[in-house]
User: Fold these one by one.
Assistant:
Number 1:
Amino acid sequence: MPNEVTIAIPSVRSLLIEMWAGPQPLATGTAFVAIAPAGPVLLTNRHNVTGRRQDNGQPLSPTGGVPDTIRVVHNRAGKLGEWLTRDEPLYASGTPLWREHPDLGAKADFVALPLTALGEVELHSYDVANPGPPIRCGPAQTVSVVGFPFGIQAGGSLAVWATGFIASEPDINFGGLPVFLVDCRSRPGQSGSAVIAYGNGGVFAMEDGSSAVMAGEVIRLLGIYSGRINEQSDLGIVWKVTALNELVATIG
């Protein structure tokens, strides 16, 4: 990619994933990387790796198949703008390799899969323990869901940005879970997307009521997107970054 091209960091942090059952592709989705005490993990939705609906356990694929492998489209090491695929098994002797939230378990629609196939791969990770500057993020404020709707890649394997608004109080748990809502026209394939507040420098309102001038990209990870509340609504579910951190911190 030419040197003069500027790429926003979140565009390469979100990764296209494909779920496979043996030689059969089932679906696409989105994931991103965090660094656990034991090493890098892939964060995505639980329903992506199980291939089943969260509410009733029925297969998501019309084929009835569920995945045994996840194919990750990674950034190539030292060559920004080039990508390569690596396959990660989802089971070892029938036992799932992904890790679930230590308290919520299968109730939480997100998991962490330890990454093992990283030859020639460069990781652009999010720090879920320190997700970004404490800029104010409240109802009606703009957020971006950065992922791959319908598996669409925005040039090479750069992510697509879908922009919406925070639709519930982010500090209050929705439905008794560490979740808040966004109003965003998201589509299949964006499950597992990073949800961020983003700006290109300027004056930002901070959580403590002050204002701060910041230069360059300002990125705050808010959580992971896991789909709409129902098919008739544009309201989507975001699992909070604090819950992601609770999971990642246990993988030692």
Note: Residues 11 and 159 are 5 Å apart (CA to CA).
Number 2:
Amino acid sequence: MDDQVVEEFHGCYLLKSTNPKFINHTYIGYTVDPSRRVNQHNAGTRAGGARKTSQRGPWVMILIVHGFPNEISALRFEWSWQHPQRSRRLRHLSRKKKSERNVDFCFRILTAMLRTGPWNRLPLTIQWFEKEYEALFPIPVEDIPPMHMAVAYGPVKTKRLSSETTVPEVYDVCHLCKKLTDSSNRLQCLMKDCDTSYHTTCLAPVFTEGTHYLLPIEGRCPVCRSRLLWGDLVRYKNGCYRKHQVHEMGDLN
């Protein structure tokens, strides 16, 4: 499987120590570059690793949640995941049991967060670095994340454009308002025979019309009438979704 390349990456990750002396130790953090960050943790504080992970490795990154719209959103998620009893949205969750491993507790909190507002409205991706890790943490049916959240496997390559890099802008016309769009505010239908462009602000009301949702979850392309997940549209816009994956799915009726 090809490594996934994501631009403007913001992710919250879960580390687990493989050192027999610290086998129950975990660490939750935020990063814009998963590969670089896990290497820093394993190299110690002088290399930029955290004090809590120093001398307690080797560490493996089990999973990372990404797709946050910005750094602030991801950091708020990280803080709540680290401090569930201090987060007003998570105070209803039971505390860690004595018989519960740290990693199991972290995962239990995560699955609850993904089903709790405001996070349950975001187009997040749960990325397992090894598919075998997922098998170690079976999720009860009632705790499965919302359907608009994607599950992926393998490493993530991040690409951040330098200030010296110039990318030619591509403009297109929004089908709804007939005005020009650019990459910052354009969504495209994911169907191979459609490829129609829309402003984000034009398509969102179409997806929420007739629902009680403030933010869109899913809807139909006004042109080809294919059913689309809002999270998939955003992921494709941000460069972390391969269009051919949707081509194979076709209309989701």
Note: The longest helix spans residues 102-114.
